[in-house]
Design goal:
alpha+beta, Nucleotidyltransferase, domain 5, 7-stranded mixed beta sheet, 23 strands, globular
Length: 466
């Protein structure tokens, strides 16, 4: 078998996936949990342990099949500072909460939203903020860096020893890129960050074979080719860019829910609602909105949730049990809010699942509204399996079709499409429709939920428009 190996590095988990290059089918997938280390100058990603795991898995896999290509796809909001020997500083966890020392002066220096479409985000979700803090607090280590790499290309560098840059990660709310003019932001140039990034290449270009060290550690031969690699949410977008006409919307769901409104305007995006413009594989800006949906769902549903039914949802509605945003510290249309479940009684595990599904449908509806979503809405990833959530969302977006991808490996297969045209776009399943009575109850509940938001912060909700 001719194998395409996809190294899929998410915030929560890292995966090694194998795709058959001839059939375009997923053959296998293995996962390990990513860790954050609290030691050192700041919380940082345990890249060393993850790299050892990947080398061990590649060695095992090489004994079973011919590895012809390796493609890396990884989460955004992360960068690596290197000299010729490796990291000069650990790779910062973007959830580091200690970056406020220079927040005011940083915000003053950045380009306006209309130039970069990077909203002012909390924690380290703007890569530029991480870099600015590192240079201020750790100047000698920072100045020793020769290269500044997007996180995806850090892993490609580990594989090949070749430092390159790529636009889908750089263009993901970093404050460093002007997506309309397709160039570095004024801030990135003025602060000297732009010149630290190595040569820009496209995600599907070949870097070459693995380094001699990697070949020795894994047994992989020099006929294997490593690609530049791509930002994970943008990998999920590739099958649909190749198979659908604009406008349409893709919801890539995992730890984060990233909404891509393909074919809509960037004009009027409200940065305070966590909207942005990501950059797709063709270097085109795409209107987006985000919230930490996977984490919020887990916070509400709990560890032992049981799949619920529409009857469970309707019981919550009848009792006016609601979840008020937000259940993650970072991201989303309600920044700075602290989540709260309003109920006069203890909820069962089924009811917590139902409430989490209903809440995430409501917040998805908000984010879809603020990024001007148009056309069919394709849901891929974790939420595509949640039929209850999809049915609620179909009521709230009744002018659009909600279509669930039947393939839960959208990121992996999108990355594999950088190598082969044999991978087809996943089949889509329409969301189940509810009866008229349930529909009216869900719509009334949405008005009630927005009304409660309006009470808490007047002028923030869309209650008058619903």
């Amino acid at each position: 078998m001719s194998a395409i190996v996809v190294m899929d590095i998410g915030k929560t988990n890292a995966k090694l996936c194998v795709v058959n290059a001839e059939s375009g089918k997923l053959v296998s997938s293995i996962t390990t949990e990513n860790r954050t280390l609290e030691s050192g100058p700041y919380p940082h990603l345990d890249t060393g342990t993850t790299w050892k795991w990947y080398l061990a898995q590649l060695q095992h896999l090489n004994s079973e099949c011919s590895i012809d290509y390796i493609v890396v796809t990884a989460h955004g909001a992360t960068a690596a500072l290197l000299d010729d020997n490796g990291l000069v500083l650990p790779v910062m966890d973007y959830e580091f909460s200690g970056l406020d020392d220079y927040r005011a002066e940083y915000d003053e220096l950045c380009d306006p939203f209309e130039r970069t479409y990077s909203p002012r985000l909390p924690l380290g979700l703007n890569v530029g903020r991480q870099l600015y803090w590192q240079r201020k607090r750790l100047p000698s280590q920072f100045q020793s860096a020769r290269y500044l790499l997007p996180y995806t290309q850090y892993w490609s560098w580990l594989l090949t020893g070749k430092p390159v840059s790529e636009v889908t990660t750089i263009g993901s709310h970093t404050d460093l890129w002007n997506p309309v003019e397709k160039t570095w932001s004024d801030f990135a140039r003025r602060e000297g960050f732009a010149e630290m990034f190595p040569t820009m290449m496209t995600a599907d270009q070949i870097l070459g074979p693995p380094s001699s060290e990697v070949m020795e550690a894994t047994g992989i031969g020099d006929s294997c080719q490593v690609l530049v690699g791509i930002h994970d949410s943008n990998a999920s977008l590739i099958p649909w860019l190749r198979s659908r006409e604009k406008p349409f919307t893709v919801m890539s769901t995992g730890t984060w829910v990233i909404i891509f409104a393909i074919g809509t305007s960037l004009q009027g995006l409200p940065p305070e609602r966590d909207t942005t413009a990501n950059v797709n594989i063709h270097s085109e800006p795409v209107a987006c909105a985000r919230f930490m949906g996977g984490r919020e769902f887990a916070a509400i549903a709990g560890d032992n949730s049981v799949v619920a039914s529409m009857e469970d949802v309707l019981r919550l509605i009848d009792e006016k049990i609601i979840a008020m945003p937000a259940f993650a510290e970072a991201g989303g249309p309600y920044p700075g809010w602290v989540g709260e479940i309003r109920s006069v009684r203890e909820l069962t595990e089924r009811e917590r699942y139902a409430l989490a599904s209903l809440y995430c449908a409501l917040v998805s509806d908000e984010s879809l509204h603020w990024c001007r979503s148009a056309g069919d809405i394709i849901v891929e990833g974790a939420f595509a399996k949640n039929k209850l959530l999809l049915s609620c969302l179909a009521v709230y977006r009744d002018q659009q079709s909600i279509l669930a991808s039947t393939d839960s490996t959208g990121t992996t297969m999108g990355a594999a499409m950088l190598v082969t045209r044999n991978v087809s776009a996943p089949q889509l399943q329409p969301a189940s429709r509810v009866d008229d009575l349930a529909r009216e109850q869900l719509l009334a509940y949405r008005r009630y939920w927005h009304g409660e938001i309006e009470v808490q912060q007047p002028g923030l909700s869309r209650v008058g428009l619903l």
